[in-house]
Amino acid sequence: MARRVPFSPETSVIRPPPSALVSANLVSVHPIVQDGYHNAFCGFTCWRGYYYVSYRTGDSHNPYPGGEIVILRMHADDVRNAPVIVGGSYWKEVARISTPGDDRDPHLVADDDWIWCSFATYYPRWGHESKAVTSNMTRDYITHISSSPNGTAWSRPYQVFRPGYWLWSVVPVSFTDKAGGDDVVWYGAAYHTGDAWDTMHSLHLLRSEERIWWTHRAVMYWSQDILTAKPSEPCLYIPRQGELACVARLENGMLYGAATYPYGKWDWTVYTTTIHAPSVVQVNGKVFIVARSRRDELPDYVPPKMPKSTFRTSKSFRVPHDSSDGMVKPSALTPMDLYCTALWELCFVDEHDTTPTLRHLLTLPSWGDTSYAGTHWDAEHQELLVAYYSMHDRKPLPTTLTMMSPSDVFLARIALDNV
């Protein structure tokens, strides 16, 4: 049973964890894709000795005129060579997946035999009064999956579950079958937006034995409260045997929830720290999140005072400036100026702690439309690998959000101490 949780400002206080502090240091960051298109929404995994990166390429962030999915791979031994621009000798394109709609947010997951790419597709709503595809028409979405037995030959995308449910993350759960053998079942977290993008959003737990046919397991969360509305982008992970946990996006915050088998009852905590598109990675029992955050919510934030010409403006985001010196007021910074890709630790007092605290570790080079990262822990080299996108190499940008807005895909290596 899903549980509605009232807003509690105390849950956003960033207090020191009781254990030894983890520290993070940026080892390197290099562009993977820089071709002038809007390359974004990354997936990342390691499978059979290769690293795989998936991303959407299009003209802009918007679903019109649409984008397609690209999958690259590189041998794991080459990850420390730089630069590693696609088209060079390291990253190779192994798939380009496209449907008649706008394909976006490709996520990668693999087992011993197959690698899968799940993504969502926006398409015009059936019965729309206009037959022409326009930027402001009503759209719905479905989840597609494409799979490969070798990483180079990928299947045609096939639809999974119902329209209007965005399967965002998938985890394998091991169990012992009736014959006493080991087996795996897959759980996925999806979000549902009701009638188009209204205020009734909800999170749902799905289950599958082969990742083709999915069944509905539970409503994880729903809310119509202003502060806790629009839950989306739920990232599942497995803290312990018989437990599932989830970090999800709120428009101005974050949700953390957990449940025990059979995962029907979820308990949630609401945070006011902005965490968008969280990617969760576990290292030796510690939990880390890479997500889009706001610089003005970070503990080391210092408001800048920069020339107006360095800021992007639009009809939605107008940036006033001081007439005396032509400089931007810190209070006038827009979300585009404040967004960044950040690494956080989710700190628990013990295994029974249901209200963990967030601790900021590192901010990656980033600006504007950014984040939506894929992550992988390289145990051999004790490094966290992060594939993400950002516009920081593209400033200044066009003055309207609907114009073509290039963004690039980067690969960062982060060393973690005390893990």
Concise summary:
1% of the residues lie in helices and 48% in strands. The N terminus is likely disordered.
Distance between the termini: 35 Å
Strand order of the largest sheet: 1-24-23-22
Q: Label the structural class.
A: mainly beta
Helix content: under 10%
SSE string, helix = H, strand = E? EEEEEEEEEEEEEEEEEEEHEEEEE
Please state the CA-atom Rg, rounded to the nearest Å: 21 Å
- For the residues shown, what is the average pLDDT? 83
Tell me the total number of β-strands: 24
- 3D shape: globular
Instruction: Report the β-strand fraction as a percent range.
Output: over 45%
* Tally of DSSP helical segments: 1
Low-confidence stretches: 1-18, 308-324
Q: Let me know the largest β-sheet.
A: 4 strands, antiparallel
Explain what you see.
This protein is mainly β and 419 residues long. It contains one helix and 24 strands. The protein has one helix at 335-338; strands at residues 23-33, 38-47, 50-58, 67-75, 92-97, 102-110, 115-124, 139-148, 158-160, 165-176, 182-192, 201-208, 215-223, 232-237, 243-250, 253-260, 267-271, 276-283, 286-294, 339-347, 357-363, 371-378, 383-390, 408-417. The strands form six sheets. It has a four-stranded antiparallel β-sheet with strand order 1-24-23-22, with no helix packed on it. The longest helix is centred in the last third of the chain and has 4 residues, at 335-338. The relative contact order is 0.17.
Question: Which characteristics define this entry?
Answer:
419 residues; mainly beta; 4-stranded antiparallel β-sheet; 1 helix; disordered N terminus
